[in-house]
Amino acid sequence: MGDALAILGPMQFIRSFLAIPVPAAVQKAVAAAVQRLQHPGDGMKWVPSDNLHLTLKFLGDVDNRQVPQICAITRACVAGIIPFEVLFQGISAFPDPARPRVVYAAIVDGGEPLTTIVTRLEERLAEVGFKPEPRDYIPHMTLARTRGGSRRGSPELASAIAAQGNRKLGSMLVDRVLVMASFLDKEGPTYQVMDTILLGDS
Questions:
Q1: Which is nearest to 20 in space by CA: 150, 132, 172?
Q2: What angle separates helix 24-37 from helix 155-163, to the nearest 10 degrees?
Q3: Would the pTM of this model clear 0.85, i.e. be above it?
Q4: From first to last of its 202 residues, what are the pLDDT tens digits of the chain?
Q5: What is the pLDDT of residue 149?
Q6: What domains can you pick out in the chain, each with its CATH number?
Q7: How far is CA 38 from the centre of its chain?
Q8: Is the dihedral of CA 113, 180, 93, 99 positive or negative?
Q9: DSSP per-residue string spanning 97-166
Q10: Which of 27, 28, 113, 115 could bond 49 through an S-S bridge, CB–CB 3.0 to 4.6 Å?
Q11: Cα separations (Å) of 89 from 31, 76, 101, 157?
């Protein structure tokens, strides 16, 4: 386990999630695409480029005494999966590009092992009390979500998404999963790595 857990101290609830880090080259390519999407009044809250990551599972507020168990489950779920490449290409949105509520970078290669990892995590974490996601996992990297009170992004945003639908955003090697803590303040979330779990580690 990392030193972060000792810093956080006993008997605290930690807003936590499981994620894959994204390298600077992909962050830079995505930031260039986002510049073409953002505009005043688009109704979206955009993820800062240096905070971009692939979320595998959002855990919510976790008793820090349960974090070692989460790390052990994550390690078991990635054991036997060798490092693999992920290719990002195109911008899209949920529920669909014409009605954007979540804007994301699409994954066109490497989605199968990501789905395997997420499926294993959902099953094993449900056994220890974490609520499963109601929808099937679609490999993607979230770029923005609607702001509070906004039902969807603007029509101009929908048009901009369509124009970026096939933009190449780079590739990366997936070789680790991070157990993350998230701290919210007025400036937005800041993240701290609680543990790093290498793929294929037993």
A1: 172
A2: 130
A3: yes
A4: 444 444 445 668 999 999 999 999 999 999 999 999 998 888 899 999 999 999 999 999 999 899 999 999 999 999 999 999 999 999 999 998 888 999 999 999 999 999 999 999 999 999 999 999 988 999 999 999 998 656 778 888 889 998 888 899 999 999 999 999 998 877 778 899 999 999 976 5
A5: 59
A6: 4-197 (3.90.1140.10)
A7: 20
A8: positive
A9: TTEEEEEEEEEEESHHHHHHHHHHHHHHHHTTTPPPPSS----EEEEEEEPTT-SS--HHHHHHHHHTTT
A10: 27
A11: 14, 30, 19, 18
> Do you know the residue count of the chain?
202
Give yes or no for a contact between 33 and 169, defined as CB atoms under 8 angstroms apart: yes
Beta strands in 22-71 (DSSP E): 44-46, 53-63
**Position of tokens 């290669």?**
109
Return the structure tokens found at 202: 């037993």
One-letter identity of residue 106: A
Q: Are 182 and 15 in contact (CB under 8 A)?
A: yes
